[in-house]
Amino acid sequence: MKRSLKKNNFIVYLMLVLTAFAFTNCEDDDNPNNNNANLRTSNPRFSLDLTLITNAELNQIQGDLFVPSNLANGSIQGVYVRNTGIGFVAFEIAEPNHIPGDCNLPRVKDGVFLEYMCGDKTSLYNAGNGQKVEGDGEFPLKAFRVEEIKDPNRNNVTVQLIIGG
What we know:
Elements: H1 2-24, E1 45-49, E2 64-68, E3 78-83, E4 88-92, E5 107-109, E6 113-118, E7 121-126, E8 132-134, E9 143-144, E10 146-151, E11 157-164
């Protein structure tokens, strides 16, 4: 009986270890940019202090900011950050369906789109969720995690954003 109990415990332990191993080695298949060779090297990590005047635009709903690559450490061409009104989003500036450098840096069009010129072609992406609206290719903009740091002494106003990581 004791031997049978040890054998059962070992089997349960082995199943737990194998299950944990399987989950830790899975890639996020829901993220289409996992297979995008154009953006594989983009992995920024930086912070923005929203109390600084240079970042004040992000304190407004629909406010946005282009962070150049020399400040967005680890990005390819920089990072676009936007206040959606319910949180913040951040995307790699490099156009995801072309080799970096083949397209100009995007411009905000009609307040809600990011527009790229790639030679004689135009690509348009939703600035709030990064989804492609028109243009060639299958990939959306590459999104990054945004962590908000709130100040409890200032009515929980967001004072800093940590992007990437």
